[in-house]
Amino acid sequence: MGDRGISNHSEVNDFILVGFKVRPELHILLFLLFLFVYAMVLLGNVGMMAIILTDPRLNTPMYFFLGNLSFIDLFYSSVIAPKAMINFWSKRKSISFSGCVAQLFLFALFIVTEGFLLAAMAYDRFIAICNPLLYSVQMSTRLCTQLVVGSYFCGCIASVLQTSMTFTLSFCSSRTIDHFYCDVRPLQRLSCSDLFVYKMISFFLSSIIILPTMIVIIVSYMYIVSTVLKIHSTEGRKKAFSTCSSHLGVVSVLYGAVFFMYLTPDRFPELSKVASLCYTLVTPMLNPLIYSLRNKDVKEALKKILEKKNTIL
Predict the structure, then answer these.
(1) Global confidence as pTM
(2) What is the residue-averaged pLDDT of the chain?
(3) Can you list the alpha helix ranges (DSSP code H) found in the chain?
């Protein structure tokens, strides 16, 4: 099947992922860049999960959430990176229809889950700083588990709705996706269906995902800042802010990249690809670094593991 008109989405057997529009000789550089970043994602997130699981001192709600964040980062980058790297060497650069459905579903699942998880982590920091005496009671194992399971549940519901709506569209103009993975906006451009209702539902769905999570994060940090400013000692303020700075950095990088991508006009698809690269690969690579470099407990746990390894050798 070529790039001729397609009358119905059921006739589509595969899509073509255009990727980055660069000279062929630059594909090797892009491949090496993706390979390096993905290797760092694997190393950083698997390492973070291993540290959290093996060190009893990190058996706290904060690190329970952080372990789940590393798991999510690892898997949603794995949904994107391997296929993108394969396509740098492939002439056809194709992805099957079912593969495209699976990629969009899994990516939406993990990215939405991460948004809700970051909101849960903001609430955790709010309780830790504003109600420290009640922290162990309020942030019980049961509540932490419920927050994580609820994040995955919301991610799954949002992903099912978004994926099913997207692939019930008719793809009539082309099967060439101007992106390096199957995403909603590039797929919309291929459709000859009336997108008004689809865009309204997508906007509503995005609003009920982004607004509640952003409200929880913003309100939590308003209370945190208010509480920290009441601390008289400089050392106390510094310690309180240091527990939040890592989380705030992760939130800023993720939401900044997402907003930049979706606010970029359709006439600048290459800018959207760069923004997508930031939150599909760069953010999962940076998250373990942000938490390990600015977190004393993680650095001490890592040092302890390295000392054990040196002793064995």
Answers:
(1) 0.89
(2) 87
(3) 27-54, 61-89, 97-130, 135-138, 141-166, 184-190, 196-229, 234-263, 269-277, 283-293, 296-312
